[in-house]
Design brief:
Elements (H helix, E strand, L loop, with lengths): L11 E4 L9 H4 L19 E4 L4 H20 L12 H6 L1 H14 L3 E2 L7 H12 L3 E4 L4 H11 L5 E4 L4 H10 L3 E5 L2 E3 L4 E4 L8 H4 L3 E7 L3 E2 L2 H10 L15 E3 L4 E2 L7 E2 L6 E7 L7 H10 L3
Parallel strand pairs: 1-2, 3-14, 4-5, 4-6, 6-9, 7-10, 9-14
Antiparallel strand pairs: 7-8, 8-11, 12-13
């Protein structure tokens, strides 16, 4: 390293990262070895330490985060007091309104809805199978959804139906390499955010909705809640989360869109860490007979 004269201008030390990484060596090592003992270092007082921590990429991410948060704040509307009711009577009395809101949010979230002309979810499932040419299906065990789906799919050869009746290790190759689509029940839904809630168990393990490229959920319209608050109130009132409850879930899955990420060059891509498509079959959908709900439902079909 070149020697520095005592009357040279004070250097500017640029730190990239942690200032604590600076050691006295950066300053004292440049002193002339011929200086007399106890001579004050000419740069110790004048050295300017500047910490540079923001790169262009960091600035871009900060700006993007700011825009996203601002959009969320503008979009969110203050909730009315009544929508927090979690009672069965409230949901029954407001089923049409809740369904209309849910359908609109599902569309925004890119969650697909089946054709509205079908009379039952079994017929809706047949339409989906024919339109998308799915061949390899995955169903659960000992559930009404699995039994009815298996009966319907058997009438549509050459479909191959896998049953999730083994451990994950035994099913791993089938899950990742063979299954085209899985079908499960949905525990509930949140109308405000267009969120599906699943309650995985030994009969419908959570891998059924996390691994296959397409996931179909069967939703009972009587299980639509206005907000997350009303859903959690329902869990508390019904003591579902009580440790002694036989119906206490080990975990709940909240699905608000197909799997997506924008980590790579901030470009939105679907299917990165899970299903690329999420589809909903509505069960007990008498509320769809209203003009408002039928219009929302028709407008939400993105297939």
């Amino acid at each position: 390293m070149a020697r520095m004269e005592a009357n040279s201008p004070a250097p500017e030390v640029i730190l990239c990262g942690n200032k604590n990484a600076l050691t006295p060596w950066f300053i004292t090592n440049n002193l002339s070895k011929s200086m007399a003992p106890n001579t004050p270092h000419p740069y110790a007082r004048k050295a300017k330490l500047t910490s540079t921590i923001k790169s262009p990429e960091t600035a871009t991410m900060t700006s993007s985060r700011h825009h996203i948060l601002e959009r969320l704040k503008r979009y969110r509307k203050p909730a009315e007091a009544e929508i927090y009711s979690s009672s069965d009577k409230f949901r029954e009395d407001n089923c049409e309104h809740l369904l209309t809101n849910l359908v609109a949010q599902l569309k925004l979230n890119r969650i697909e809805l089946c054709a509205s002309g079908a009379e039952s979810w079994q017929e809706q499932l047949q339409l989906i199978a024919k339109e998308n040419d799915f061949k390899h299906w995955l169903v659960g065990t000992h559930t009404g959804v699995a039994e009815h789906a298996r009966e319907i799919l058997k009438t549509l050869p050459p479909n191959k139906i896998f049953t999730y009746d083994q451990s994950y290790e035994a099913m791993k190759d089938i899950l990742f390499d063979q299954v085209d689509v899985s079908i499960t029940g949905a525990y509930a839904a949140i109308a405000e955010t267009g969120t599906l809630i699943l309650k995985p168990d030994q009969y419908e393990p959570r891998m059924m909705s996390l691994v296959p490229p397409v996931h179909i959920a069967l939703l009972d319209t009587s299980k639509i809640f206005a907000t997350m608050a009303s859903f959690t109130d329902h869990l508390i009132q019904t003591k579902t989360l009580n440790p002694s409850s036989a119906h206490r879930p080990s975990n709940l899955l909240f699905i608000s869109s197909p799997s997506k990420t924008a980590d790579i060059q901030q470009k939105l891509a679907f299917g990165a860490h899970g299903p690329k498509r999420v589809m909903v079959l509505l069960h007990n959908s008498e509320a769809l007979t209203t003009i408002e709900a039928k219009t929302a439902f028709a407008n939400a079909q993105i297939r």
